[in-house]
Design brief:
alpha/beta, 45% helix, 217 residues, Rossmann fold, DNA polymerase, domain 1, six-stranded parallel beta sheet, binds 6-O-phosphono-beta-D-glucopyranose, 6 strands, binds magnesium ion
């Protein structure tokens, strides 16, 4: 019996994944290399700190903590320049309808994101009030694929993990949902998200019919 849906933010509710990619790439270019699309898949769902460590590893660059801290601030500054331009019109197709449909069915809704920018983004999109619980990078210690973010969301909603559905665009996020023993819906490529219970090409496929099928099972 499904009682709650937990949504990832970046790449599921809004296409900020492309802004993370641009901002990280600007940083990599300073060191003389670029991040490939394949490498970027490994950054999706992963915390800011862990993403930087991966990028520095790919570039074989060794920095001390103070230098890394400066880069983290710089990356977020670039990212926030994009985020400041966000509005309702940037919400991905079908998402507002799904959120409202779930509300009408009295299904609880949570956000489960690694981002520390999650709340201001939801506010810019004017959908923050639709969430019954928000678990983001400010309250999570262990990054996806660790299930902490989704388990905390379920706990805050007061719903057992097995009654939760997770919507994710990242491989690490699907793994986190599976480890939490929640149903996982991947948004994107089947080749990347092959561990998800269902994979939909894009958010527009999150139709009422699809939700009804899940709720009936
Ligand atoms: C995740 C994104 O949702 O949040 C990652 O998929 C990002 O790409 C991570 O690095 C942390 O986000 P932020 O906004 O705290 O830098
Ligand atoms: Mg994501």
């Amino acid at each position: 019996m499904i009682k709650a849906f937990i949504f990832d933010l970046d790449g599921v509710i809004v296409d900020t994944a492309k802004y993370h990619f641009i901002a990280w790439n600007e940083l990599a270019k300073q060191f003389g290399f670029e991040i490939t699309v394949h490498q970027n898949e490994q950054l999706k769902g992963v915390s800011r700190v862990k993403s930087l460590d991966l990028i520095l590893e790919w570039g074989n660059i060794h920095l001390d903590q103070a230098q890394k801290d400066l880069l983290l601030v710089q990356k977020n500054k670039t990212y926030l320049e994009f985020i400041n331009t966000l509005s309702k019109s940037d919400i991905l197709p079908g998402i507002v309808d799904v959120l409202n449909y779930l509300k009408s069915k009295k299904i609880a809704i949570a956000l489960g994101s690694a981002s520390k920018n999650a709340v201001p983004i939801l506010e810019k999109l004017e959908i923050d009030a639709l969430f019954d619980a928000i678990i983001d990078g400010n309250v999570v210690e262990k990054a996806k694929p660790n299930p902490e973010v989704f388990l905390k969301a379920a706990d805050k909603l007061g719903v057992m993990p097995e009654y939760c559905v997770v919507i994710e665009d990242a491989k690490a996020g699907v793994e986190a949902a599976n480890s939490a023993e929640m149903m996982s819906i991947g948004i994107g490529s089947k080749a990347v998200l092959n561990d998800a219970n269902y994979v939909l090409e894009d958010t527009a496929k999150l139709s009422k019919n699809f939700i009804d099928t899940l709720l009936k099972n």
